[in-house]
Specification:
Number of strands of chain A: 9
CATH topology of the domain at 190-352 in chain A: Butyryl-CoA Dehydrogenase, subunit A, domain 3
CATH architecture of the largest domain in chain B: Up-down Bundle
Largest sheet of chain B: 4 strands, mixed
Structural class of chain B: alpha+beta
CATH superfamily of the largest domain in chain B: Butyryl-CoA Dehydrogenase, subunit A, domain 3
CATH class of the largest domain in chain B: Mainly Alpha
Helix content of chain A: 40-55%
Keywords (chain B): FAD, Flavoprotein, Oxidoreductase
Shape of chain A: globular
Strand order of the largest sheet of chain B: 1-4-5-8
Structural class of chain A: alpha+beta
Organism (chain B): Crenobacter oryzisoli
Low-confidence stretches of chain A: none
Number of strands of chain B: 8
Radius of gyration of chain B: 21 Å
Number of helices of chain B: 12
Order of helices and strands of chain A: HHHHHHEEEEEEEHEEHHHH
Oligomer: heterodimer
InterPro entries (chain B): Acyl-CoA_Oxase/DH_mid-dom, Acyl-CoA_Oxase/DH_mid-dom_sf, AcylCo_DH-like_C, AcylCo_DH/oxidase_C, AcylCoA_DH/ox_N, AcylCoA_DH/ox_N_sf, AcylCoA_DH/oxidase_NM_dom_sf, Mycobact_Acyl-CoA_DH
Shape of chain B: globular
Bound molecules: flavin-adenine dinucleotide
Protein name (chain B): Acyl-CoA dehydrogenase
Mean pLDDT of chain A: 97
Cofactor (chain B): FAD
Mean pLDDT of chain B: 94
CATH architecture of the domain at 190-352 in chain A: Up-down Bundle
Chain lengths: ~350, ~375
């Protein structure tokens, strides 16, 4: 029983953190809002150089073969710095989905996993839980769910209609396409398992990003309330202000272990992965929306401006808190376990198989 | 990251489970805030001790099992799963014991620890005074040196279980010229010493769960001081750290309540589901109990690797006390007009059994340092906000 990260994992995080801190600045994110694609070739190059695109590609395809636990650390940094390159859908969720394809897709795997590892391909993922597909406009390949079948469709074969998000960093598209024998990689029976896994991985990725975002808005609020003075003192010395932020810190403290447990369950194919992932997602979405509200409040009117960088992260929180299944969807997955007649509920069951 | 038990831990679980199955009293003991209940609970402590289960984390030479914190969590899970009695000696076993191990002399360890382990001495805590509540550094009760004794004068209050306890540990002002955190010492006081008057206080449920303790020229030998003279504050903080941090409220307690809440809900769904908020509250409570368990395992694995308990002692205190309130609010929402009924009213489904918990949950955000004080601590120490 060990809830701690290895030195290697922490070193990887420290490295990525220092690179993102320098290169993924709020000013850059704002510049990208104004561009057509909203994406940056330089940033993609950067994540490739950091080895992130190869992180969970199996070693035999030229990747590093690391698992969901390492990715949770990375996704928290992605959230903290607000990166919107299609890294997670490509190199984590997409790569895992492709790696798990049946033998019949061996040739496809060879090509695409190698491309992903080398940063030569970007993926977008379409799933019925999300009305729109993020980053479809820059994807070389779209992995799409058609009645549980897995289809891979090059961007040239789809028609995209852009839909603007309140978070100008997020680029969302309605995708029109025609499923065919040629695009199908797995039938519905195999696909159901693959999609269940991809769903859990995507939900975990959302939860991990939310965790990073909560830390980010807290950091911004702590800095601001130390500097801003009213009544002759820093507003951060007022208890009402302190308690707003302490509330967020408490919730985060108890959401994070759920996130870590979900990652371990997913990595090990635990029978309750869906439950654990939904727990993490519910806890972090609640924590993050509370964090957005409270950190905005302690900024006063400044918090309501376009100018303040808080908006970048607050809007990301509002958007992410509702993707890959809404609250009702995830609560139902919890109910399916907790309220089932054959579920054993007692304190010895926390880590039971 | 490895969230599985070792074979040794599984075997440990099986062992305690088997022991509890044959030893836990079939009928619940009377409340330990009554005289007969206190006695029955003291006997239970003795039974636990004889099975070497009274303090599993203590060293074997003291009658413990030298368990690490993960095994302690397993023990607690099985203990709550079995519905075993509340620990009347929790102050001694979980709070004072570890403090004596850290700060006591050899002689003090020999003198106090075995008797705590066996339930021979039941301990009360004496921090609060009428004018020193949240502001504990305002303590005024004096312990003035007179030869090889301290002479104690003043008053403690809200002292849990002091009505029938044998000993009290607490903070006293040994330097009459001092103020605030300075000049305080941590002293162990036998409650049968002449000059002590214990006046029971009835709690919200009508029982005398705590007491005022008056000291009138009470003479206590100097060797009853734990730690250096004048260094009582830091010894007390170590004790408070254990309390808030980990040992006072193990997650299993709340997981057991959450499981009972789920059963209550399931037995009353036809009625409860008229309000969809009830289902969500039940599921949320269950998730939060689970989260508290996960967080505690995480803290335990950090401590095992040499970390120290920090401000998460305060996040824990807030989280479990507010969870307990939420769970009992949900139970009350399900019970509706039956919710006011007390346990002695015979009814199907042990309906009245929720009311004691509901009342006690109201105290959670107050004792062991109020949640407002904890939020101050979190803001200043964890988040680094200005004082
Ligand atoms: C069931 C129970 C068992 C207890 N057992 C023991 C025991 O065994 N031994 C013992 O010594 N004590 C015990 N206590 C006492 C407990 O520690 C105190 O009640 C607690 O520390 C609060 O002190 P107080 O009651 O004087 O409240 P006060 O300090 O008067 O507080 C009243 C209100 O003011 C708020 N407040 C006070 N100061 C601040 C501040 N700086 N910032 C924000 N808000 C503030 C508090 O949060 C609270 O809401 C027990 C209490 C209860 C309810």
């Amino acid at each position: 029983m060990d809830f701690t990260f290895t030195e290697d994992q922490l070193a990887l995080r420290a490295n990525v953190r220092s690179v993102f801190m320098k290169e993924v600045a709020p000013e850059l994110l704002r510049e990208l809002w104004e561009t057509d694609t909203g994406r940056s070739a330089e940033l993609w190059q950067l994540v490739t150089e950091q080895g992130l695109t190869a992180l969970s590609v199996p070693e035999e395809y030229g990747g590093l073969g690391l698992a969901d636990i390492d990715w949770v650390l990375m996704a928290q940094e992605v959230g903290y710095y607000g990166l919107t390159e299609p890294l997670i859908d490509t190199a984590w969720v997409g790569a895992a989905l492709i790696a798990a394809l049946p033998e019949s897709a061996a040739a496809f795997k060879d090509v695409w996993l190698a491309r992903i590892a080398h940063g030569e391909a970007k993926l977008a993922i379409g799933h019925p839980l999300n009305p729109l597909v993020e980053n479809a406009h820059v994807a070389d390949l779209l992995l799409l769910n058609h009645r549980d079948e897995v289809h891979a469709v090059p961007r040239g074969q789809v028609t995209l209609t852009a839909h603007a998000s309140l978070d100008a960093s997020r680029r969302l598209f309605a995708v029109e396409w025609t499923p065919s024998e040629a695009t199908r990689l797995a039938d519905a029976e195999v696909g159901r398992t693959l999609w269940a896994d991809a769903l859990n991985r995507s939900v975990l990725a959302v939860a991990a990003q939310l965790s990073g975002l909560v830390t980010r808005v807290l950091d911004l609020a702590i800095d601001y309330t130390a500097e801003r003075k009213q009544f002759g003192k820093p507003i951060g010395s007022f208890q009402a202000v302190k308690h707003l932020l302490a509330d967020v810190a408490v919730e985060l403290e108890f959401a994070k272990p759920a996130l870590l447990r979900a990652a371990v369950s997913l990595a090990n194919g635990h029978s309750k992965t869906g439950l654990h992932v939904s727990h993490a997602r519910l806890a972090l979405a609640d924590t993050a929306t509370l964090a957005a509200r409270h950190t905005m409040q302690v900024h006063g009117a400044m918090g309501y401006t376009w100018e303040l960088d808080l908006q970048i992260f607050m809007k990301r929180i509002w958007a992410l808190a509702a993707v890959w299944g809404d609250k009702a969807f995830h609560l139902q997955r919890v109910a399916d376990h907790v309220l089932a007649s054959d579920t054993v509920l007692d304190p010895s069951q926390t880590f039971a198989a | 990251m490895e969230l599985d038990y070792t074979d040794k831990q599984r075997a440990f679980r099986a062992e305690i489970r088997a022991w509890l199955a044959t030893h836990v009293p079939k009928q619940p003991l009377p409340s330990f805030d009554t005289e007969e209940g206190f006695k029955a609970h003291r006997e239970w402590e003795r039974t636990l001790f004889e099975g070497r289960w009274s303090m599993v984390t203590w060293p074997t030479e003291l009658g413990g099992r030298g368990c690490d914190l993960i095994e302690w969590l397993i023990f607690e899970e099985e203990y709550w799963r079995a519905g075993a009695p509340l620990r009347v000696n929790q102050n001694g076993v979980f709070l004072l014991g570890p403090t004596i191990m850290d700060y006591g002399t050899e002689e003090q360890k020999q003198r106090f620890l075995p008797r705590i382990a066996a339930g021979d001495d039941i301990w009360a805590q004496g921090w609060s005074e009428p004018n020193a509540g949240s502001d504990m550094a305002a303590i005024r009760t004096k312990a003035i040196r007179d030869g090889d004794h301290y002479v104690i004068n003043g008053q403690k209050t809200w002292s849990t279980r002091a009505v029938w306890a044998d000993w009290l540990f607490g903070l006293f002002r040994t330097d009459p010229e001092s103020s605030r955190h300075h000049g305080l010492s941590f002293v162990l006081v036998p409650l049968d010493t002449p000059g002590i008057t214990v006046r029971p206080i009835r709690q919200l449920n009508g029982e005398t769960g705590f007491a005022e303790v008056f000291f009138d020229d009470v003479r206590v030998p100097v060797e009853n001081r734990l730690g250096d003279e004048g260094a009582g504050w830091s010894v007390a903080m170590a004790t408070a750290g254990f309390e808030r941090g980990l040992m006072l409220r193990s997650p299993a307690r709340f997981q057991a309540t959450a499981a009972a809440l789920v059963r209550l809900y399931q037995a009353n769904r036809a009625h409860a589901d008229r309000d969809p908020a009830i289902r969500n509250a039940v599921l949320d409570a269950w998730l939060r109990a689970e989260a508290y368990a996960l967080a505690t395992y995480r803290t335990a694995s950090r401590l095992i690797q040499g970390g120290e308990i920090g401000a998460e002692a305060s996040t824990n205190k807030i989280f479990w006390s507010e969870l307990d309130l939420k769970m009992h609010d949900a139970a009350q929402a399900i019970l509706g007009a039956h919710g006011e009924l007390v346990a002695s009213v015979p009814r199907e489904g042990a309906i009245g059994s929720w009311i004691d918990g509901f009342l006690f949950a109201q105290a959670g955000p107050i004792y062991a340092g109020t949640n407002e004080i904890q939020r101050n601590i979190i803001a200043e120490r964890l988040l680094g906000m200005p004082r």
